[in-house]
Amino acid sequence: MADTISSTAILLLVALVFIPAQTAARTILYTVDQNPNSISSPSPSPSPSPSPSPSPNSICESMVELQGYVCQQHQVTTKDGYILGLQRIPVGRSGKTADKPPVLLQHGIFSDAVTWLFNSPEESLAFILADNGYDVWLANTRGTISSRRHQSLSPNDPDYWNWSWDELAAYDLPAFFQYVHDQTGQKLHYVGHSLGTLMAFAAFSQDQLVNNLRSAALLSPIAYLNRIPSLLTKAAAELFLGEEIYWLGLHEFIPKGQQVAKLLENICNKPGINCNNLLTVFTGSNCCVNNSKINVFLDHEPQSTATKNLIHLAQMIRGGTIAKFDYGNKEENIKQYGQPTPPIYNMSSIPNETPLFLSYGGKDQLSDVKDVQVLLEKLKDHDQDKLVVQLVENYAHLDFVFGVNANKVVYDPLMAFFRLH
Ligand SMILES: *[C@@H]1O[C@H](CO)[C@@H](O)[C@H](O)[C@H]1NC(C)=O
Ligand SMILES: *[C@@H]1O[C@H](CO)[C@@H](O)[C@H](O)[C@H]1NC(C)=O
Ligand SMILES: *[C@@H]1O[C@H](CO)[C@@H](O)[C@H](O)[C@H]1NC(C)=O
Prior knowledge:
- This protein is of the alpha/beta class.
- It contains 16 helices and eleven strands.
- Helix 14 links the parallel strand 10 (356-361) and strand 11 (387-392).
- Residues 1-53 have low confidence and may be disordered.
- The protein binds 2-acetamido-2-deoxy-beta-D-glucopyranose (NAG) (3 copies).
- One 2-acetamido-2-deoxy-beta-D-glucopyranose (NAG) is lined by residues 346, 348-349.
């Protein structure tokens, strides 16, 4: 029984959360199709544990320079000691030096900078921005392939994985902002997808980073999560929280790991669970993603995250709040925060004059329309000329970054917004 619960939980969480969740699910579906009754060799590329530490240059080499663009590899150290990699595309294909401000692109969970480089140069936001004269900076949060170093910890140490998106907002994002600002001497535009929006909302609501910010584009915005329509997703969050101690013990959550694959396979054999529908159930039906490219993506993704990060997200799905990590008891919360419940991030505290471009999808099952409405209600006092909201009726979660028509549908209006600020 315990196995069943774990399986359900993990299956749903892998599938549920953000960008390359799709990839994870596809990996598993592929396996299930090949081997309907077997749980051996579950993944095309099972990750060893400890995970590999590939060359931090690999994104520049394999994703940017290959397309004919200049790419620089940079690194920055956070206040809590993580050494993070950034890639910079300083000029477009024309070779003309950027004449527009820097843009920092922040990926979502289970992903990294590859998010913005996945499609052709005409379709991928990072290349489009570079070709339009922006100085493009690609962030990679702690634990991803470019950002697995630390001043004193190794990814093999449990302590390395003791973080959730609280720390991404409090340490990683400020380190990126400061670094890009220092390097360029300019305020920056920001683009976040999914968890990359949550990190920004959390920071901005505490009046952080806004001094170095020109404007922010938030795609598939995630702040409130408890109107996620899928009952399975909600049930998964509950089950995951029910086994919090067990999962926290895993520290690093490796989506391509054997353990996760085995559990997924297990649950896909349960009656009543239709794994063929998982992608749609969890990310929504992505109208415009080029499926034939998914194998390219699999070579690089999905990336690890901290199990604690997933538990924090599950808390949001259960609670409907946007608050710091809940340690689950008064004593520990008081020790951490000086109060019995975790402090709330107040979305109404985002400075009203901060220019925000929000784009959300009518078919997105993670950034659900009703949850976005709750967020917009919190932003009702925002300066009207500083807030642009776009609803793309036929878009689901992944269309915002992988959609082959996102250049016209989302990125053109996004750049028009940047030009105003
Ligand atoms: C994780 O970090 C918190 C503080 O952020 C600390 O109180 C706690 O003891 C750490 N947990 C472990 C297992 O090291
Ligand atoms: C989809 O991807 C394949 C393989 O990379 C490519 O040949 C094709 O042109 C892509 N289609 C579109 C519409 O981008
Ligand atoms: C959130 O911030 C708004 C604006 O600063 C304030 O009016 C409101 O009382 C705050 N809400 C909470 C729960 O602190």
